[in-house]
Design a protein that fits this description.
Largest sheet: 6 strands, antiparallel
Helix content: 10-25%
Structural class: alpha+beta
Strand content: 25-35%
Shape: globular
Number of domains: 1
Distance between the termini: 33 Å
Radius of gyration: 17 Å
Order of helices and strands: EEEEHEHEEHEEHEHE
Length: 216
């Protein structure tokens, strides 16, 4: 029960509002943070107060980590160490995958979509969960290009706030030292999107139609 902090100043607009995004400069000069349209944020308590948080992570980059659902409780209590297995490239070369774009991470390839029918009005709603993280700038390295678009649609812009060539961040992880994860990545927010239609039909996600993914 003490895992979350509920601060209305940290809550983004619910999906129906679609208020304009705001770009904040965070960390290194070439890294920006975009306040996500249509997402609601629940803060995860990782520090006693804002001053303590900023002292330790205030200059780190903001990025997002998708989840299929089964790892959420473990990430909340232990950090991203449990998620290493999802993105192992080899036994000795493991990485954690993040993106500066929440919409890129919201793609079904990275994040599960839950469908729920309300008992009171019978209305169907769709839910998505994405973790908001702070990442040590020294651990980011060179960003990689998106890998979801079909070859004939590579010129399609995935996120208006980021170039396609910088959408994938791979953070190297030492499997023998779980402390490395906590030293370089911290999950401090749970982003939730609730929609009355399938996210596939949202105008902002029209690029999904140009990707290969069966989990729609």
């Amino acid at each position: 029960s003490k895992c979350f902090i509920f601060d209305f100043k940290q809550l983004y607009c619910i999906v129906i509002l679609f208020t304009p995004a705001i770009i904040y400069s965070v960390g290194q000069e070439n890294k920006e943070f975009v306040s996500p349209d249509g997402w609601k944020r629940f803060g995860i308590k990782v520090a006693d107060n804002g001053t303590a948080f900023n002292a330790k992570w205030g200059s780190w980059h903001i990025a997002y980590h998708g989840t299929k659902g089964q790892h959420v409780p473990f990430i909340l209590t232990s950090g991203l160490c449990v998620a290493i297995q999802q993105y192992s490239t080899s036994k000795n070369n493991q990485t954690i995958f993040l993106s500066p774009s929440i919409e890129y991470m919201a793609h079904p390839q990275h994040t599960r979509i839950w469908r729920h029918i309300q008992k009171d009005d019978g209305k169907c709603r769709y839910y998505q969960l994405v973790f908001q993280c702070r990442v040590n700038p020294e651990a980011v390295g060179d960003p990689k290009s998106e890998t979801l678009l079909q070859e004939t649609y590579k010129i399609t812009r995935v996120d208006k706030d980021f170039c396609n060539e910088e959408l994938e961040w791979f953070i190297k992880a030492n499997a023998a030292a779980k402390e490395f994860i906590h030293d370089n990545i911290i999950c401090y927010g749970l982003m939730i999107r609730v929609t009355d239609c399938h996210p596939y039909d949202l105008p902002i996600l029209s690029w999904w139609k140009n990707t290969d993914c069966g989990e729609y």
